[in-house]
Queue: 4 jobs
Job 1
Amino acid sequence: MAQTVFLEAINQAIQEEMRRDESVFILGEDIRRAIYGATADLLSEFGEKRVLDTPLSEEGFFGAAIGASLVGMRPVVETLTSFMWVAMDQLISQAAKMRYMFGGQATLPVVFRASMFYGAGSAAHHSDRSYPMFMNMPGIKIIVPSNPADMKGLLKTAIRDDDPTIVFEDGTLFGMRGEVPDNADLPGEELLVPFGEAKVFREGTDCTIVAIGGAVNHAIATADQLAAEGISVEVIDPRTLVPFDKQTVLESVEKTGRLVIADPAHKVCSAASEIASIVAEEGFWSLTAPIQKVASEQVHIPYTPSLEKHVYPDVPKITAAVKRTMEG
Amino acid sequence: MEIDRDTLLLMLRRMWMIRNFELKVMEVHSAGEFAGAAHPYIGEEAVAVGACAALEDTDYITGNHRSHGHPIAKGGRVDKAMAELYGRVDGYCKGKGGSMHLADYSIGILGESGILGSSVPVAVGAALAAHIRGDKFVSMAFFGDGASNQGALHESMNLASVWKLPVIFLCENNQYAVTTSYADTVAVDHVSDRASAYNMPGMLVDGQDAVAMYEATSAAVARARAGEGPTLIEGLTYRFEEHSLGLGRVARGAYRDEAEIAEWRKRDPLDILENTLISQGIATREECDAINAETVDEVEKATDFARNSPFPEPEDLFEDMWANPIPLP
């Protein structure tokens, strides 16, 4: 199995889908020269009509992608989470609502790939982890991959899916290396990860950690450290938040009786909040301790590293949360 | 420009269909037969009908809140439109869209947006698909003078011009954004003046004259199909009724004076088209009246159809969310 960098996995997914289906095209800012790396070499292979550099007009080109999807194209938009704010009307009023509002007439196979740059001194305007806001809005599928293999497999699934999808690409993982299976070794010779299937990274019996995006690696590190102390931790990555695989989480909590949720988004109305509420409603009698949310502090992202490092879930915070569930 | 008789009579029929549809909507809305806002298109019929007569069924349009005229102008079904206003299962959107969100994907009506300016980038996107695939269809975005101030419009016009997309920006300038006048909100004399900033032709057209609208739009469509890019057309028109049914009647005198309304009512687009047809010997008064009467009948049948259509069942609430359904949370 090949060791692949996260950004290369994105590139492979797009390249494979553009080869497979002529209706797939990509648009965004500075993608021809692949300023972030994910779109490297696409221009030379697929040409200017299918690899479009856009003006700084998110409302305009998000809407153009939506409109193209309505008439049979499969656009992939590259953007940053923080730039989605200026195009929210297109994402919400159009992408999310059109199908339902028009009684099922509209089909929108459009993918928005939104990079989440945080933890790198980018300050408040470039560090958004905004997936919970979109979870609140019906009509958009939401995926948050935590490693190169899932990144590739989920993005390919997203491009083939007939509904609007936002892929939240965690910038803290862009340089991560991981095993991505060679296509030749796979059934059907391609990597497709289904939506709505959580992945269990560590099996354990004492406490369940559900972790999102970049927090998954911290959760795995926490589990490995606590194993040395005799605490057996199960680590679950939901991989997709809409749809959300609640069964895997509820079954795990039934086994462990304890739940910690690690979520890089802001704490209030986070993905962690929703997962906590699902387990409180449907898994309450399995719990032997209060649910612990480890999410970002409810402040804006400060520029200086000396402050920013205190914002997000990390191994010490997740470890402390697991230990709180073990008290008493 | 030579316009064939069939096209002219079709335009007259569609204009009468809109007029009579809207009159019926006003009647049944005030009788309380359905809820919600509805924005009459009366007075503006020539804009949508003249513009859409220049399109094929395979071309696309998007519209806005004042939205009954656009689908009828493009050949949509008045029974399904009326049933949608009544919130019934046989409506265009099975009762989920209502007055401001009519759509008919079978004839290129991609849907209307209650958020103004918001459907314009969507129309640009349909044109982008034509550009990428080499298809010959065009798309047309209807918007008002109010929406011409939205950022989405400016981003769309620039994008469409840079990429030379086959799109027509069709501004229906009825001179008021609800109660706020054009002069108070737009810094140039005409919306069409803005075209030069996006390096595309801008055409100011008499929006009460369906033939003028048809001719201008035909030129823009030909330009788009030839790969020469977008055009901005401004149809100067006037809303004869209030902004929305059930809203603002008390405010009429406060923002438009009666003399102005009366002056514009003298330029009724139906009179203008009928006078053209009769004076040029294309149709007789009797033929024009017959078309009017036929559309009255058709609207009456559409209203019966709507009234007799059932409301959706409670379980329909959960239908049409996804093309590829996922479990409810």
Job 2
Amino acid sequence: MSRTARIFAGLFVGLIFIAALFPSLLAPGDPLAVNPSEAFQTPSLQHPFGTDESGRDVYTRVVHGTADSLTIGLAATALGMGIAILLGVMTAFGPRWIDSMILRLLEVLYAIPALLMALLIIAFTGPGTTPAIIAVGLSTAPGYSRLIRTHLRTLVNSEMFDAATVLGHSRWHKIRNHLIPNTLSTLLALITLGIGQAVIWASALSFLGLGTPPPAPEWGAMLANGRTYLHFAWWLTVFPGAAIVTIAAGATLLGRTATRSRI
Amino acid sequence: MNTPAVEIQNLSVTFTGPDKTRVEAVKNISLTLTRGKALGIVGESGSGKSVTARSLLGLTGGHVTADTLNILGTDATRLTEKQWRAIRGTKVAMILQDALNSLDPLRPIHREIADALPGSRKHRKRAAVEALHAVEMPAPILRADQRSPELSGGMRQRALIAQAMIKNPAVVVADEATTALDTRLTRMVLDQLAELKDRGIAFAMISHDLAQIAQVADDIIVMRHGEIVESGPTKQLLSDPQHDYTKQLLAAIPRGVARFAPLSQVATFDDTTATFENFKDPVDVREPSDISAIEVHGLSKAFGDHAAVFGVSLSVPQGSTLGLVGESGSGKTTTARMILGLERPDQGSVRIFGQHFAPAKESERRDLRDRLGAIYQDPLASFDPRYTTSQILINALSDGTTSRSRQYLKRARELLDLVELNSSLLSRSPRELSGGQRQRLAIARALAPTPDILVLDEPVSALDVSVQATVLDLLDRLQLETRTSYLFITHDLAVVEHMSDRIAVMTQGELVETGTAQQIMHAPSHPYTQQLIAAAPDWNP
């Protein structure tokens, strides 16, 4: 990865975090302020991304939506990864029957498309931000579990581990010296890639009306809303869509940077 | 004889590095290949021998200059890529080294062999079967339809030879075609290669192992640092080597060299006054011991239905070396892993200095662990990739409690000293070390808890013969100085004979014969051992 790409990724992440933590710095307006007289304005200097059917400024809404999307992305990834680490460690270190039991369970879960599973979970919990987090988190966990299990297995069966065993190092020392450090870089890459993915899925749920409820400025919900006016007001869908794409791409770029710099 | 098939005068190949530095990999090489004759090119890794061979196919990837580069009457100094393609495979063919990776596992081998031929599929398949027949593949019609994973290592290597021969090339180049093969397989491939000469092919064989080259080649050139240091007819070169480096290579071959006699003689060549007298065989000062360092009784292990090891019993007296020899898949490594307590035996037991070691709980045998060390074939895989040399050693010295504490630095330096490594390497990553240095580092690490026993699993198989010699000498010295007991596992008969007091022969999971090195090598009693010894190259320089 080139230096410029790394700087770009860094700047980009900085910008996203400012947008998430202090959205007023970038967009001082109120994302919920309605002004029917200014409905469906095309992008201009005053409204860089235009306005929607109620005259709300799309730019302000996109910036203020960052926090929501990012929270869902981070929380869902944290949940999925947490479950995955637990299952991965249990399968890699536990007795064989636990391993095969969890593996069978994962295979069954794997067979259900993740989005479908998220919808199933929402069907139980009802729509909302927290249910969206739980749904995305739970449905991504099986994939992560498999990756983590394989990674841990490879390490535990490696000659590096054997060498430490022969030198008489205790189990805890082996885990602390070799397992955890050599797993962290993989995890970091998985997490950054996962955040981008989770943002997309959270938006997909909102798009279907199952995530954060309106009028909150959530990107997926904005997309769904703009769809109705797509034939004459393209800016309602293009800008939230572009935001989703950039955040997912940026997280992926960052993940790749993290992986490469470890090698 | 007729005109030479290939004539090269003053060939140089230069590579340009990423930072515009130029490296001359091959400098002013001249050689000729004649039909029906084999030329051996010998040298250690990095000597430029592969680059030289690849220049015959226009595959060097570097900048090639030559006064003459004549391939079968074609001036090849200025060929376009397209013109090269017309030569490759058709006029000049190459036998690839790694039979496992060189054949597509998803395609039947007849397609892998005959893809380059024109004509209908049926026609090509017939040609492939004929080619397999010519390399004495058993049941060629059946094998032609199989895929490479269904074939044994020897069959794969034959398939590769058939592939190289399919277009009847006039020149064949074999690059390390026998490296990493078992004794009997090597024999078979060498026989096959020698047969190419009878077909009137001009043949070039490249290897780091002079002993194998000598089996096939009529003439040999010795390369070092991209230059030819000596060349001549095989017999003359072996019996009366002129250049010091050739002598060094010859001395490095362990075949028939007495126990503890040094194989590496690097020191002599820098010092004109020194003679070989300085390197008289060290006297074997060891006294036979009654104490068993390792005592293995009835060890068995099955993986599923497959019995990997069955009823193996052996013992290693303190201060001596037991060589465990066998082909790949014979169960040597599984036996070693059970002795090291890395694999739980289904049956049988392992005792270390009379104390029960396996099968046992890890916590019960931790104290005994300090008396046992292990060396592996690929040292790099046994190091944590994030660690530097000093961290590897400190981690071993501190029982895994730390990898940074400076209080162990002095001991780490002493360990490097012991294995003849410069302590300036402490801050380096093992990836920056050469193969020989890595193996020395692995030995240094294994010596950290001052073990009484070393289990060495193919410790020198991945090394060049000249580097192997220095590592074997180091192991000899350590054994004389510290009375460490060795269990030395290898597929190489020459190495095992040189290193062992006693030898145990394994095949298909069972120990078929155990005896003194002398008995096994010169009067083997089991049919399998006899076969194995017979397959080893005759070697009388």
Job 3
Amino acid sequence: MFKVKSFLIKLAILPLLAFGIGASADETCMSPYMAKIVGQEDFVYVWTLGKEGLGDEQDKLVTIDVNPASPDYGQVVHTLSVGGRNEAHHSGFSDDRRFLWAGGLDTNKIFIFDVHSDPARPKLHKTVDDFVAKSGGVVGPHTFYALAGRMMITGLSNNKDHGGRTAMVEYSNQGNYIATHWHPTDQDLRGAEKTGKYADGYGYDVRVLPRRNAMFTSSFTGWTNFMMDFGTMLSDGEAMKRFGNTAVMWDLHTRKPKKVFDMPGAPLEIRCAWKPNNNYCFTSTALTSQIWLMYEDAGGEWQAQAVGDIGDPSKIPLPVDISITSDDNGLWVQTFMDGKTRYFDISDPFAPKQVYEKVIGSQVNMISQSWDGKRAYFTSSLLDNWDKKGDQDEQFFKAYTWDGEELNLEFAVDFKAEKLGSAHQMRFGAYGLYGLKRPYEVKSLVADAR
Amino acid sequence: MRIFWVLLFSSSISTAEPVGDVRLAPGDFKGGYDKLDYETDSLSLPARTGIDADLIGNIKSEHLGLPSFSAYQQEAPDASAIALGRKLFFDRRLSRNKTMSCAMCHIPEQGFTSNELKRPIGVEGRNLKRNAPTLLNVVFNRRLFWDARESNLAQQVWSPLLAKNEMNNPSVGHVLEQLHSDEEYFDMFMNTFGETANIMNVGQALAQYQQSLIGGGSRFDQWYFGREKTALNTLEQKGFAVFMGKGACQSCHNIGDSYALFTDHQLHNTGVGFEESMRKDPKSITVQLAPGIQASVDQSLIRSVGEEKENDLGLYEVSLNPMDRWTYRTPSLRNIAVTAPYMHNGEFSSLDEVIQFYNSGGAPNELLSPLIRPLNLTNHEHLALKEFLKSLTSNNLPELVLDGFAAPVGDVL
């Protein structure tokens, strides 16, 4: 009992401390509980899917040198194969940013990489292979989101029917299972208010606003669909019913769901605003191509509302990753089908306006931008069996600079030509985070990590 | 015309009647999803708990409407072997990357098949070309698989265990070594068979569990064989008359004097396979994006993200006899209300679609079975036939489903 109390108190205090010292954020989209890189990042770690018939066919962590001052700038400087094709997908740092947790949506393995000993050469520190059994049947570890001393992992599916009902699973930083938090269903709302018609129990992403004691989750689809050939699924009327249509607002400290919002069409990534008085988070629906806002109203109640379309929804552009700028004024939105990135002015969060777009490739999914917004990196892969087929299946990492008006390509890595696989999620690394000096002299660029 | 019809009836998909305390349908119920007024009615996974059934007792019980078990049994029933087979059946570690068990495609509450997609997917999401058949009453099938290429359950199990697009094990020896190295399995095989796992007894154990999944005693059985006059209502009785008469369903889905398996154990060309192989793709298809929200999607977009579907020629693939093109095994109709989607490729998601297909005379082709012809059913006869088919759900199915819920799911520990 003492331990439980102690834990709750710790959770309540840490967010305040984090804000107090100003180290509130990583590069615009990650947990407020960790140190951030505010200057030039040295590396981008790309969690990469192994591709049958390509290279060593295994999932791997690919390290790319992105510091223009480095002699290896633009080069793949390290790869670390982990064995098997696990449906490599997302990753996230621990709150101390010393370890990168990366998940396999298919095999449910979690690979914990040591990125602090030598940021240029991550090492596999530990593999968690009993996630499903420990969690009570959760399948598809997706988002890895650092809380204080904890890693919150969202699931996508379950081991009973491989459908979309699932849970969040909480681990300690040491990689030990702590608790499973099931998403509310009609049979067991777990105390939440069903504000509309849906309580599907599906999951996808998680983000928090510690200052409001609020946690938010979105909903995608189960193993059967995210592993299925995309074209086959689109042609299967039953499969197309198995998508999430909800977002849930939770009490962060107690981990209890409070409100279930209707959000038709698979809301995916959640991005919360940074400014102290901006009490809102964005998400976008993949199938219905809308931007949604979850916000706290004047009465202190949380609400959800669709605030804009992305492209022409009738053409199914399939918005995937989104990224909010650190000043809360811009939102990058990738649309997979047309390979575009779109920049929305969200200075009025209730009225996003698209002000820029650019084709990145035949397909595009993820974006990671620097804290100052001057650099943006893109990768191509969505899911192994959802990626485009044949020549349209470009697999790349592309590095751009953004001057506020135009994205300018600095360099690209062709993941097929390099026999690496399909490029998915990116996370930044820097020597300065760990008090390490770069192995080369830098005259004009200073790593400022705190 | 076809599209209109599908839209008209699609709300009836997966709306199986609840039996007992178990919902015999996917836990994330999607009935009426095509309508804007759709509401969720999702079940809690932590609440999906079960009760062990006496499966030996189930085999030994008299099941109204079923033939003698001993006339069809492939393995002499043994409680220890059934328990071992059940454990294997729900063990996801039996696949190459430890993600797929038999039960991931033959899901208890979904009629021991998959209601949630036309054709199941296997390891790494690889496509299968045929619908997952129900395992309920599988012991009474004289031939197995849709193309009837196998006759023995104990032998059959090795096909999915080794198929690259199913459980993808690299060899028989690999599976056996996994079982040898597991202390619990080692003991169970020794206690059951007096020897370690081998190519024979793994199949026998899985066959023992599968052949225990029997059930008769449906409301139809109570009415027809049990002489309970009120077990079927008037509409269902009318449907039975259509089934036996104008609908001519019984010509393939046989009903005998003392039992009914609703199959002739033969293979027929209804045209479903022919249509799938030979028809031209439509320029666009309607895709459900969210409840009540659909979009017309151009085929070029589908192709850009989709692999070519593997062709399917039915029994021909076994016999190489061109007369066997697109012929498939007649499935039993028992428990049909809970085993959607239908036909060998899962083409139809509702009984309405199936009845409409046969009512229109199937899909014409040079090898079409002469038993398939336009039926000219009225709307009332169509409805009556559907209601009759929904009366074929076994009265002990909830017990079998709850037993499936109670079975431990094997995951990496």
Job 4
Amino acid sequence: MRAFDYVEIRVPAKPQYVSVIRLAVSGLAIRLGFTYDEIEDLKIATGEAVTNVVHHAYDGEAGDIVIGCALFEDKIEIMVSDYGNSFNFEEIKSKIGPYKEDENVTMLREGGLGLYLMETLMDEVKLNNEGGVTVFMTKYVTREQVEQNVERIIT
Amino acid sequence: MNINVQFRQNENIIRGFVEGEIDTYTAPVLREELDNLRITKGVSVELDLSKVSYMDSTGLGIFVALYKRATREEAEFKLVGLTSRLARLFEITGLSELMDLEVDTDTKVEIGNESV
């Protein structure tokens, strides 16, 4: 038997399906015992990855997004993939990141936070750029830690 | 899943109430409502986000745009009623250092409040 369950969802790359994916991922995460905050983080990170595909992958052409979720006992791995245009990760990465306190208001970016949020809200984010873009994201369940702490308090 | 935006204007103060989810699907509605606001010098815009059950970077982008517009017009812009979830997004992106935000400490987190 495999060490994990695998769930795959395929939807058209359209804005109205982003929330459907978010809710599906949240439903799977509940099963693994993630906390409320962790689930909200997962929803945002997945939403960002799917939104990126909706906006950039197909240049207005019809296309699909494939979301694969590997459910382990202690973590969830989420893969978001398209077969449209790939982007240069390093180039995009150099343009993202948090805002700085002394930034000029008139120059503030109005986008480009998606990848930054994914990296901040997930434990690991990897991108593969060959023939379309695939985002791999991992988040660990913190349940074990809590149990250990409880034990420590009792003894 | 939906979004609802309402405004009340009292002289120079515009109070807006946003309810629902802010993502790439609902963003055009919110963006249009905000674009239609008459923001001029001395006007104070206050948006209440206490009923926003989900928001991602799409929402942050919209509020950054409004903040820039208000600053350009020499108007005031403030976000109020932020839940701890929303406040966290503004914090990790550094926007809380730039924008005028008011966190709603009384907000009870409703689990699973995002409707299908």
